[in-house]
Amino acid sequence: MSFLEVTEFLLEGFKISLLIFGVTLVLGAPLGLPIAFGSMSKFKPIKSIFKVFVWIVRGIPLMLQIFIIYYVPGLLFNFQLFGEVDRYFIVEYGIMDAGRILAVLIAFTINYACYFSEIYRGGIESISRGQYEAGFVLGMTKSQVFKKIILKQVIQRIVPPMSNEIITLIKDTALANCIMVCEIIKNAKELAATKAMIWPLFYTGVFYLLFVGILTIVLNKTEKKLSYFRS
Amino acid sequence: MSVLEVRDVKKSFGKTEVLKGVTFSLDEGEVLSIIGSSGSGKTTILRCINQLETADSGYIEVAGEVFFDGKNKKEDSQTKRKKQLNVGLVFQDFHLFPQYNVLDNVTLAPKLLAEEREDFKHNKKQIFAEIEEKAKVLLGKVGLSEKLGNYPCELSGGQKQRVSIARALIMEPKVLFFDEPTSALDPELTGEILKVIKSLAEEKVTMVIVTHEMSFAKAVSSKVIFMDNGVIEEAGTPEEVFDNPKSERTKAFISKFED
Ligand SMILES: Nc1ncnc2c1ncn2[C@@H]1O[C@H](COP(=O)(O)OP(=O)(O)O)[C@@H](O)[C@H]1O
Ligand SMILES: [Mg+2]
Fold this sequence. Notes:
Chain A is built from 9 helices and no strands. Chain A is mainly alpha-helical. Chain A has a single domain (about 5-230), classed as MetI-like fold, CATH 1.10.3720.10. By secondary structure, chain B is an alpha/beta fold.
């Protein structure tokens, strides 16, 4: 196999990695908000439920969570949900791995939503009460205070920790190969097994590095753009 | 006509009774100074009137509207907010909105309020232009015409406090409250704030000012209250309270400020 062919094969896998990355970010980031508000709820039972949930999700390895999502429908209901989805997509569309990818997306989205929620919570709680009070005293509604005063300050504060999470996320996508999803490292391992080629495994690092490089530039720009004020 | 009525207001935090029955009233155009040592409850009474705290009992009325009468302790936020438009509060540490420049800090609240006007959709441009014009006039009055585009982090403490005064004034409150407006400032910056408040007093803006600036309080006030340990120990004209205090505690407190 030529260098170019290996690159193409790995790129196929990296597309899956990027898919997991993109979907997790697009779904997990908004999903983190209700979880953050839940875990700040003044109603104790709600707050406890959310806190325990976040504790569990953050407390066990993501790989284990992927296994749980993937296997639990079969164990509980004797129905291989994701296996069926896999089969359906292969038969109908000739698409491989759809069910497995779905399981990974669910696990990743929930996991990252919980991490994001903690970042949001920290950001929201770090805004001084004076900001809320100043808004209230000027006759603003609660939602106006949040949207017009609090939100942007929270965003400014969470961009650095969010950047860290986002960069971790692209590397975490490699975990998908624990249920045989053909992301980039799985493909490289396949080359090692079938063609006795080890170097593609190390070569995958270049893909990650390039992507993280781009991410870093974009995230730093965002951070800069928000640095026009100090709170 | 009294524009502010406070009667027998009590407030405890946990087991500590911070306000033990506070009563006073204020007429339109009057300036009331509240003096007293730290922890005597001055901030708490301002916060109760401005609905940032709910009193335990008593009666509070502003401009004929009942703010608090011991009932309805859990009012819905919309009712509270509507009432709040009658009063304004200037905080000790400004609480400017950091992400907005000086002009936007002042126009934010009136612009949001204008959205509730019936003619907002048709006249949005004009309404906003009027608000901005008004804000510029106010900012000119507090000497900040040059700083409209600056962000709070680019201002001195004194400038920040002047923005926050303009921000409160644009809502045209019936009574404007100040909680130690100069206490967070370097001594050389207090003068500029006191000058602004004095000019407001000359324009007959009704104000309640918690302050440790005794000579300022004496000069600007129509009434002075000395608070001690949750009660009004002494009240009267500035001459009465500062020059002929009846209470020993008042005397002791005031003598600490004479040099
Ligand atoms: N939210 C609160 N919880 C508990 N205690 C409070 C709270 N706010 C004020 N206090 C207490 O009430 C007393 C009066 O406070 P405050 O009204 O701020 O006094 P002042 O403004 O005259 O210095 C102080 O002893 C203070 O510790
Ligand atoms: Mg105080």
